[in-house]
Structure of Acyl-CoA dehydrogenase:
Amino acid sequence: MLFNPATYDPAHLDPESRRLLLALVRFFEDRGKKTLVKNYIDRTWYQDFLEFSADQGLFATFLTPAADGDGDKRWDTARNAALSEILGFYGLDYWYTWQVTVLGLGPVWQSANSEVRKRAAELLDDGHVMAFALSERSHGADIYATDLILTPTGDGGFTASGTKYYIGNGNVAGLVSVFGRRSDVEGPDGYVFFAADSRHENYHLIKNVVNKQMYVSTFELTDYPVRDIDVLHTGKAAFDAALNTVNVGKFNLCTAAIGICEHAMYEAVTHAHQRILYGKPVTAFPHVRRELTDAYARLVAMKLFSDRAVDYFRSAGPDDRRYLLFNPMTKMKVTTEGEKVVDLMWDVIAAKGFEADTYFDKAAMDIRGLPKLEGTVHVNLALILKFMPNHLFNPAEYAEVPARQDAADDEFLFRQGPARGLGAIRFHDWRIAYDAHAALPNVARFREQADGFCDLLRKHAPTEDQQKDLDFLLAVGHLFALIVYGQLILEKAGVDDHLLDEIFAILVRDFSGYATELHGKTATTDEQAEWALAHIRRPVADAARDDAVWQQVLALAGAYEMRP
């Protein structure tokens, strides 16, 4: 299940995708661990990686839609996810420059402006990266309140002035997608997305706002000339382009988390198994076995959910927007699970996790950022709650979504349409996946909890006051998110029954934990509190299952170590 550079061969992809991904692995392995660690500590700008990507045509091939490119160029979420995972595996900083390029291209590929689309494709061919300038220091990513102002010049163009903050690649981006508002138009009709160039004399780079190898800039535009041919979107379409870009680009957070955890796990399990305490390997201690098994099962679950979510992205269309639920799930649930995975391993390897010459200490720092890079956990949970009534109680008929690894262009992602109507999106019956695996004891036990949650909402639904209490609703949101998480894990499956049942043993425990949290909320009614206590469950124990999964964990010891 885990990515291993020593055995990796994406033979399921087309020859050019396979060549590029294997070349990427070789690039990092040839540099070796000492070089990557030193560059991380010294905050060395990754010019060598950008030169490699340009020379190989990596970003141009993976990030140019088929309509704007030729040959093997397409926007293929499956192979993009594979690339994102590899970059996360070797270092979040390398992933970040890719991720920000994805975001910078979002408003471009959604635009009808053929001139800018052509310019973006040429820049990718020349090896440039892109930037997405939405955030401002005073407003964060609140696109209702931007202070970058475009003043009309009378000839169809504008001059743009204002400062953007937390803008990745802002130091070198060949194209910067900038969000602002017109000085002469009030409200949403005044929004504008336009293309800028970081090399222009009216573009003033101020500084890197983070103490990292990546460059997260703040920059200022001073009377920057915006020609009519630079405008990507205006009015409500600019607002929609911002949100739809996030739908496409922030999905990569989950695969970055997976890659980070995979590399850290090889290092942690190998260290623990080789370290002798009291005359026996650290892995012989029962609590260590439990923690590493838990970490492994959670990591596999992260990967199963994310892989299945890819299928829904690739099969989306105007009449099937289920991906809009699974996207915040990857941004919130998968990334927070990544934090748990690292913490469990850190409890095992203890002081080793602080050492400068390990990958682990970088993982422990970087894994924290992913749940916070897009709106934080509470924002995504609030978004997830919009889908809850239809998902649980109002299923629709859909053709089964197949596993999607075909070499197709995911062109719908750039014509998603208006970013509204989330509460009206319908889903297939979530119970189907659970029924298909009902023979597994912990799947059955978790299904009891999920059915109980539906009863809670039918009989003791949140009151009007509780629906205004975000703290209360977040506890409800965590319970709902677990049901969605388990559903896609079961749909993907493909692992042995021991491991799948182990994953659901964890979900049973997690559901019980969130039920306990709901019980303790001040806003919780007596009836809701009674429900919470009644739905705390212990997982079904199985020593043979535990041992079988532990053998999978132990097989990771020495299975991969990065070249010195």
